[in-house]
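Researcher: Re-running this chain for the archive, since the previous output was lost when a drive failed. Same request as before.
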Amino acid sequence: MNAPAECLVAASGVALSNYNHPSCLIYGIGNVGRQDDGLGWAFIDWLESKSLCPRAEITRHYQLHLEDADLISRKSRVLFVDATKDPAVEQFWLERVQPKMDFSFTSHAISIPSIMATCEQCFGRLPEVHLLTIRGYAWELEEGLTPTARQNLEAATEQIAAIPVSK
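Model: Regenerated structure tokens:
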């Protein structure tokens, strides 16, 4: 198990039950046709299969869009879930994200901090945003997660599901 990630998840207080509200959004990013890039969608599939957070808005997209600034402007909490190639992430990583305008807003790969900064600038409000990244290993044009990525997904879901409701 990835002890640092476990500690971070527990310390973050990101309990899934705190997202079971219409003012919350859980957003899976990825592409199931590119192996482990589908981890964000696989997390959403897991949520739906377990009937977790049925009152939250749940969505899947291949990538972020500038229009997502409008989407998150109407939410109090947002949890983004995405795959990562970063070798520093052993299994998964959960972090609170802060707004930051960067040049990604001009490309097809806009960042979550840039979406947040756009939300704050255009709509005058900002939800609490967390990002759960899950380590992936293969990105070829093929459906299905690698066994190691599936293990990382299971570790992440086990940890995040175990967090008690924060007061």
